[in-house]
Amino acid sequence: MPIDPSDLFASVRQMLVHLLGPTIQIEQDVPPGTWNLRADPNQLELALLNLGPMPATPCGRRRP
User: Which helix or strand (DSSP H or E) is residue 11 part of?
Assistant: First the structure.
């Protein structure tokens, strides 16, 4: 299924903003004309969400 990267990143960004709160700034840079992706949208969203820091590990500190 073709996925528009701009649409996918916009939806993931909204989830990350909600999960991480206002103290974390999220930036995305998808140039116009970027090709569509052929991937499972749920797996790609999950992979992008896993890149975000977990609230239990602020500033890169490890969990106890």
Answer: helix 5-20
Q: Are 3 and 39 in contact (CB under 8 A)?
A: yes
Total count of domains within the chain = 1
pTM, two decimals, is: 0.61
Give the domain extent around 33.
Answer: 2-60
Phi and psi at 38, nearest 5°, equal -110, 100
pLDDT tens digits, 39-51: 898 998 888 888 7
With vertex at residue 9, the alpha carbon angle to CA 8 and CA 13, rounded to the nearest 5 degrees, is 125
Tokens of 28: 């995305």
